[in-house]
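Re-running the complex after MR caught last week's input typo. The corrected sequence lines follow. Everything else is unchanged.
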Amino acid sequence: MPDEILKISNLSFAYNGTKVIDNINFSAERGSFISVLGPNGSGKSTLINLISNALKGYEGNISVFGRDIKKMNSRDIARLIAVVPQYSNPGFDFTVEELVLMGRFPYISRFGSETIQDFNFCAKIMKKTGVFSLAKKKFNELSGGEKQRVIIAQALAQDSPLLLLDEPTSHLDINFQIELMDLFYTLNRKEDKTIIGVFHDLNLAANYSSTAMLLKQGCIYSAGKVEKIITRDSIQEVFHSDVFVAKNPVTQKVYISPAFSIIKENDLPVPEGSGNIRVHVIGGGGAASPLLDMLTRMGYKVTCGVINNFDSDLDTASMLGITYVSEAPFSPISFYSQNKNMELIRASDAVILPPVAFGNGNFSNLVSVKEALELGKKVIIVNGSDITKRDYTGGKAAKIYEKLLDKGAIVVESIFRVPEKI
Amino acid sequence: MEKKQYLPKRKTYKYIIILLFVLIAAIVVSASLGSADLSIKETSIIIASHIPVIKNLTINQTIDPLSERIITQIRLPRIFLAVFAGIALACAGVIYQGIFRNPLADPYIIGVSAGASLGATVGLLFISGMRLLSFSAANILAFAGALGVTFFVYNISRIRNRISVVTLLLAGVAISALISSINSFILIFKTQDMAKVIFWLMGGLTSASWWHLYTIVPVVISVFIVSSFFMKDLNLISLSDQRASQLGVQTEKVKVILLVLASIIAASAVSVSGIIGFIGLITPHIMRLIVGPDHKVLLPASAVAGGIVLLFSDTLARTVLEPREIPVGIITSIIGVPFFIYLLLRSKRKVF
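Corrected-run output:
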């Protein structure tokens, strides 16, 4: 069998004169798990309906295993492609087993009925999907998660190599979502099912699929490896929303979160002329992150230093596109880095010192702040916690800190007070 | 865990066998009832003497020729017409309810009754003298009207070769209302004949003859057989059109085939019996409660049950106020309306 299971060429589809799918070219390899992502109205579900032959009247070509689906009859297509819909509500009170057996439809001739093989196959599927004990129950008596499992079993009863998912978990609670996605993942890995799924939840999609396709207004915006496709820029471009994209340290999968920040929460106004003011923030141990985000959003030109690689402040700075000075991981700050940091401080209008913990490694950052004060720069200290409690230098840091206060550094109690002092 | 309980469908066929026995018993009992008093035993012997194979058992029995004529020429044609009209209406009901995914759909919903009424009115008022075999012009025009209106409704609700169920229902209701108005308009000019038309519309099997059966029975049986091959498809269509297509059904084609079959069978029943309401609505619903929604079982079960219900209603219609006849449509409505209201109340609680 060829490795290419699905090939779509020059596919276009219009609905009431509006182009819903606009010249899509795409192919799927056997064994892949592809998520189709995009906002409402981008054509995701239409694409699934076109591939599964539930919508006709398209331009272009869809072929499965090299066979044009236009030239195949509906039974043959149903043996190659099964669909798990978002939601299904049979009008009549069918039992679970009746519904699962319906998945065998493409294998039963018009004049025949289910054979013992069909029954056995469905029993196997029901065990795999965990609905075997519900076989005699009425579908309408089941919970949402159980119902969706039955629908999955129905699709699996078609015994097709290609499985299309149309937002199969979007109306379910998180526990069912994970359960079902785990099931799809297993089917993909262990049973060689090729899966193409439309997902609302980008994180869920990123977690389970290897490849992603981003649709925008009926066109493919980008397609490829998930971590290349889901980026802050692409989400901004396609969904028009501001998100942070990061890598989960445990799963190593990308995940996104809304770029909801404390500035929105506290309704801080953007000060006039902030674009001309340069602010340098001393980083370390994540203490600078909220401040970096807030100042960036308020329009200030923000720089940061010196931060070690793998420090979360460094992740923040790179995510926000801030210029920063970095040092090798877990190493003391070198003179070279210190000098680069001083260059940024010299170029800035104000230096801000968030409640960073000091050890011998980053002690020189504190020295740089003192130099800044001596250069006549405005220094603002955010006094989050008592300096003696975050001084790991045996009192050296606390001593300099005292000097900073003596020499006229401004102290504020919370980061929200920082802008008014700048 | 082996699947010994895995052949549940077989079990439900027992209901069909039970129903068939009930039907046979009902035919015998109904044949014995009437103004000429005949015993069930005598009736059974007379009926048996006309059935091949079994008739050898009745050779030694004496049969009163008058009783035999009453049964074979008067009662049995009417009984069988009731049974087959009942089968036809119930089958049409099963199919329409499956396609519309709604247990409140009935065979008249997309214009069969309106078309038949118009046809019958024209037949009764303008060409009442014309006859073909034992069919009156009203019979023939009612059949033509029922099919004509159904296909008109079907065609106006077809958008780009697809049938939207909602459009079909709305078009059916609208066109039925239009046709009824035309019907009433015609009646204004023929007030003296209004009674004839109204009596026809109320439904009745009084004019039953073997000739009616010779045409209705083959139609009903062949439609029943052909449509039973599409019941697997109908199961899937009753989920949703989209789901049916995804599972391999040629949805649009099968829907057209089934709509045509259901319309033919409903029209043929209406053309000989007038508008008999509620049989096609209620029988499938009761049967669904008993045998479940699987159309492979539901269709035969409802067919037999429909025959029983209409035979029961017609027997009441001709015996309750003897010698006076009550139009059978009135009886079925008196039984049917309370049940219909029960369905509505139930569907308020549970969304179908």
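None of the earlier attempt is carried over here. The mean pLDDT of chain A is 89. Residues 99 and 154 of chain A are 6 Å apart (CA to CA).
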